[in-house]
């Protein structure tokens, strides 16, 4: 059995600089071999040294393998950095409650994390190749600035519960923002719906004129659809609004971790009770979120599909401000509502993301798997596309105008055929008798 001891070089160490340190292998019998260069360290502010990778001992990862494992994921982690910093602050306070940190150390760590948060918000802190992930970069930053206090930060945590916590915080913040935007869209739609509550509009089935309706009622139908979408998103929020802090790699910790206090400090409503489920919920919870966004995208899809149909040159029921249209490279007269066509496509993009997430999470045994990092991209894309789509939806609603003359011209007799049949029902005819009588009348036209 051997152990490895590191010896710093004789020249002066410079904080923040990558420098070579030498290791000597100490044998079981106590003899020490010749020191050899075994790996590279970074020097902390207090003169001690630390490893750039959290797991690193006496080997370095092949550079091509490292690029394959981390290059794309670092871009995803950049979006999660502020949430991982929030989780790390709550974790530092937990370490204080556990007696790992003293008051002075806690203050130093929180000050350092707050400073780093400002840099992230200002776009001045970027993850780069060699950082491996956001967790490693944050710990390396703390250790470089604070030395031993930074090295303590990973006590009672794993990158597994870190990323789960950061992801859930990201979902929580963005779902709440999406719900807020949906409610703003509902208010705007309801205002327009009330304004045009008595304006005639033909109803359609099978893309053919069917029965009379109103422009206002057509608008209100989307407001009610949004209400159902909000219910689904709130359900998804309830499922994901739980803290993973203190679950470790997925099998708990041999320490008394103040899980409820940490959850409350970071703004979660509850904790994930079972440590293993924290990892088993990866992919499942994200799929629940994206599923709720697909419902919302379906509402938007239906709205813009109607809008494209009703604003077509053939019908002309709705007029759209030309500033929202695009032209053609060959046909000078064209004004295309590309914004609506692109919005129509988003439900298919989100559905593909849902399939991607569930496919990545399926057929894996319990516990953490590196496959999970691939879930970030379709999750982030779904949320970002939804937020952008809602903004475009609001722009469309604000800039659509019903064309009263065209709508009134569309009020043709056949739209009232069912109403005529019911007039006969009121006079004592059976509905089927009334139906045949009115149908015969329209066959003669």
Automatic annotation (TrEMBL):
Q: What is its EC number?
A: 4.3.2.1
| Record carries keyword Amino-acid biosynthesis | yes
Q: A Gene Ontology CC term for this entry?
A: cytosol
Q: Which Pfam families match?
A: Lyase_1
Q: Where is the Fumarate lyase N-terminal domain?
A: 72-349
Gene3D superfamilies xref list: Fumarase/aspartase (C-terminal domain) (1.10.40.30), Fumarase/aspartase (Central domain) (1.20.200.10), Fumarase/aspartase (N-terminal domain) (1.10.275.10)
- Give, as one word, the top-level EC class: lyase
GO biological process annotation, one example? L-arginine biosynthetic process via ornithine
**Pathway info:** Amino-acid biosynthesis; L-arginine biosynthesis; L-arginine from L-ornithine and carbamoyl phosphate: step 3/3
Q: Which UniProt keywords apply?
A: Amino-acid biosynthesis, Arginine biosynthesis, Lyase
Keyword Amino-acid biosynthesis in annotation: yes
Which GO MF terms are attached to this record?
argininosuccinate lyase activity
Its name, as the record gives it, is Argininosuccinate lyase
């Amino acid at each position: 059995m051997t152990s490895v001891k590191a010896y710093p070089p004789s020249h002066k160490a410079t904080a923040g600089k990558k420098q070579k340190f030498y290791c000597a292998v100490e044998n079981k019998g106590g003899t020490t071999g010749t020191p050899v260069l075994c790996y590279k360290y970074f020097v902390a502010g207090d003169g001690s040294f630390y490893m750039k990778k959290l797991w690193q001992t006496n080997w370095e990862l092949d550079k091509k393998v490292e690029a394959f494992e981390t290059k794309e994921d670092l871009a995803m982690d950049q979006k999660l950095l502020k949430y991982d910093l929030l989780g790390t602050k709550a974790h530092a306070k937990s370490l204080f409650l556990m007696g790992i940190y003293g008051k002075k150390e806690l203050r130093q760590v929180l000050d350092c994390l707050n400073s780093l948060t400002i840099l992230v918000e200002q776009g001045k802190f970027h993850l780069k190749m060699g950082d491996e992930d956001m967790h490693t970069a944050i710990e390396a930053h703390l250790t470089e600035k604070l030395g031993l206090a930074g090295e303590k930060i990973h006590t009672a945590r794993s990158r597994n519960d870190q990323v789960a916590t950061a992801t859930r915080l990201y979902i929580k913040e963005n779902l709440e923002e999406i719900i807020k935007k949906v409610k703003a869209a509902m208010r705007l739609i309801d205002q327009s719906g009330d304004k045009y509550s008595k304006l005639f509009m033909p109803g359609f089935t099978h893309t053919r004129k069917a029965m009379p309706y109103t422009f206002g009622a057509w608008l209100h139908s989307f407001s009610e659809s949004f209400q159902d979408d909000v219910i689904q998103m709130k359900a998804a929020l309830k499922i994901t609004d739980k803290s993973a802090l203190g679950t470790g790699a997925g099998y708990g910790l041999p320490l008394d971790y103040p899980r409820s206090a940490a959850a409350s400090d970071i703004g979660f409503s509850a904790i994930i009770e079972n440590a293993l489920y924290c990892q088993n919920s990866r992919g499942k919870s994200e799929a629940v979120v994206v599923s709720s966004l697909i419902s919302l995208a379906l509402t938007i899809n239906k709205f813009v599909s109607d809008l494209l149909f009703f604003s077509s040159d053939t019908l002309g029921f709705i007029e759209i401000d030309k500033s929202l249209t695009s032209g053609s490279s060959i046909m000078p007269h064209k004004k295309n509502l590309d914004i609506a066509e692109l919005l129509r496509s988003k439900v298919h993009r989100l559905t593909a993301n849902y399939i991607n997430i569930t496919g990545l999470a399926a057929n894996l045994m319990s516990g953490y798997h590196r496959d999970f990092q691939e879930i970030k991209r379709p999750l982030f894309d779904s949320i970002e596309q939804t937020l952008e789509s809602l903004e475009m939806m609001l722009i469309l609603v604000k800039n659509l105008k019903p064309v009263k003359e065209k709508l009134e011209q569309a009020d043709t007799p056949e739209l009232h055929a069912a109403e005529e049949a019911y007039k006969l029902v009121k006079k004592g005819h059976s509905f089927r008798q009334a139906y045949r009588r009115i149908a015969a009348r329209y066959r003669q036209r």
